[in-house]
Amino acid sequence: MQLSFHGAARTVTGSKHLLTLNNGKQVLLDCGLFQGMGKDTDALNASFGFDPRSVSCLVLSHAHIDHSGLIPKLVKEGFNGPIYATPATKELAAILLEDSAHIQRDDTRFINKRRARQGLPPYEPLYDIDDAVRALDLFKSMNYDEWTKIEEGVEVLFTDAGHIIGSAAVHLKIEEAGKTTSLSFSGDVGRYNDAILRAPATFPQADYIILESTYGNRLHDDVTGTTDHFHEWIVKTCIQKKGKLIIPAFSVGRTQELLFTLNQLELEKRLPQIPVYVDSPLSREATELVKAYPQYFNQTIQEIMRTDSDPFDFKGLTFIKTVDESKRLNELPQPCIIISASGMADAGRVKHHIMNNISDERNTILMVGYCEPRSLGGRLMNGAKEVKIFGEQYKVIAEVGQMRSMSAHGDYDDLCQFIKGQSPRKIFLVHGEYDVQQEFAKRLRSKGYRAVEIPEQHAVTNL
């Protein structure tokens, strides 16, 4: 059989890994959208590198758009097989994929107005809402820790990856010509001391492991200091400078962690009386869905819920729904906190908030997660003095800050803990920048994992 890598290969987005069996059947692991890749983004999303009509089934690790966002395009181009996911991932995908279609439509309209004035041809969105709806009809739910047959000679097992609600590591058992081969795909690995979720689960021995490596060269700040650090940014921006605190955050995972931290500040009577706005069309739905799966929360938050029934709500919190409400936030004269998607600041409403607030020194743009270096968030984190937003240049006058303790991705200690006890024939590193992966590969080799490979985009290997 063959394994090929068509995304998240020496970069962190666009996760797609294709397993081709000896009988010609194809199993696709994830189908993510490339995000924040600068001028290369459109070209990378335009072509899969394989024929969608030939894919037999899709196994989805979790619902984040860099892992699921091209599923509607896959269906648009002829895929019609089952999509296997955990129940929570299926529910999250329903809101995230429809939201992705709406964002593409809205951003395309905004960009095309400017292109029309410049005499340039219009962009076309990758897919529309109908494609997203057709994709959702193909989803089939699978629980954690249950082996399930998905093709002749192929079984799959989901184990909790601890990254977001419903996230899974994917384990395949393939029988061909009397031989059994096991392949594990980490998806995105969460943290072993996450503020909300359970730690990643152990999994059966694997012959081959596809392992994410986002933070393969880094140790995160101690999560126990997150509340104090966040409080410092709120006081500095909203109380001392009397400005707006703009926080790009993915609607699933990071937004809930921010709300949980703000709720903790209120319980400790340290949250200033300033309005907090969550400006993302799907954030309320996502937050309600997260609260529907308390069995995936860690013991600490379950203890908190004995006295605080809703750890994601507090006085002064408002969810923004309409575009008009979102636009009015830019007209507010008073200090406030605005949490808005996307986390890399390369799409969605947060891009407009940054555009409208980046030129005021009272304001702060606070990055709370990983950003691809070429994304708007990545350029801001790397100290850009001027950035292009919707085709126009803006000087970076607002303060840009970072909170490294809030990542939903495990650092290199977490990743090493995840594969502890495994003795695979080979580890394939994906979902990481190449320089980071090279450092992580050295670390893994020093721990005894000799066969570590970093595949290029569209690379093919025989198993």
UniProtKB/TrEMBL annotation:
PANTHER family: CLEAVAGE AND POLYADENYLATION SPECIFICITY FACTOR FAMILY MEMBER, INTEGRATOR COMPLEX SUBUNIT 11. Residues 255-380 form the Beta-Casp domain. It comes from the Bacteria. CDD domains: TTHA0252-CPSF-like_MBL-fold. Keywords: Hydrolase. Residues 13-229 form the Metallo-beta-lactamase domain. This is MBL fold metallo-hydrolase. SUPFAM superfamilies: Metallo-hydrolase/oxidoreductase.
